[in-house]
């Protein structure tokens, strides 16, 4: 059974590029908003969530907070994708239960795919 990855990203190009790069190795689900991402997480029980910090409806931080309120999501790694690298944002992400944060501007799609493989193998 392949592992499931949920990508919650409002930039359709980034979401599609990640999906294409990861498809084949994993079962991929995509959401363009935080609200739809919450629904998809609850329906599909992903093994990893890639979550954009800035979403059009509710923030990625709020999505993560709501997920972490449910016990079944406490063990699921959530990686925040962001361009915000200030220490307050980063410490808030990690304190709220985020596994890691990755800067979209510093990583290529291939870098992200490699990091995803490392995390999925770990869990």
| Domain tally | 1
The CATH superfamily appears as Response regulator
Oligomer: single chain
* Secondary structure tally, helices: 5
Descriptive overview:
By secondary structure, the protein is an alpha/beta fold. It has one domain: Response regulator (Rossmann fold, 3-Layer(aba) Sandwich). It is 44% helix and 20% strand. It has five helices and five strands; from the N terminus they run βαβαβαβαβα. It has a five-stranded parallel β-sheet, sandwiched between helices. Strand 3, helix 3 and strand 4 form a beta-alpha-beta unit. Helix 1 packs across helix 5 and helix 2 runs parallel beside helix 3. The longest helix has 14 residues. The mean pLDDT is 91.
Short structural description:
With 123 residues, the protein is α/β, with parallel strands linked by helices. It contains five helices and five strands; from the N terminus they run βαβαβαβαβα. Helix 3 links the parallel strand 3 and strand 4.
Describe the structure using short key phrases.
123 residues, alpha/beta, Rossmann fold, 5-stranded parallel β-sheet, 5 helices, 44% helix
């Amino acid at each position: 059974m392949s592992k499931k990855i949920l990508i919650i990203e409002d930039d359709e190009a980034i979401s599609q590029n990640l999906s294409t790069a990861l498809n084949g190795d994993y079962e991929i689900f995509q959401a363009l908003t935080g609200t739809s991402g919450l629904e998809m997480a609850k329906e599909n029980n992903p093994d990893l969530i890639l979550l954009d910090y800035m979403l059009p409806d509710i923030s990625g931080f709020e999505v993560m907070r709501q997920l972490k309120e449910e016990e079944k999501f406490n063990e699921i790694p959530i990686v925040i994708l962001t361009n915000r690298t200030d220490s307050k944002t980063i410490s808030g992400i990690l304190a709220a239960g985020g596994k890691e944060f990755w800067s979209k501007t510093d990583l290529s799609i291939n870098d992200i795919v490699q990091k995803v493989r490392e995390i999925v193998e770990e869990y």
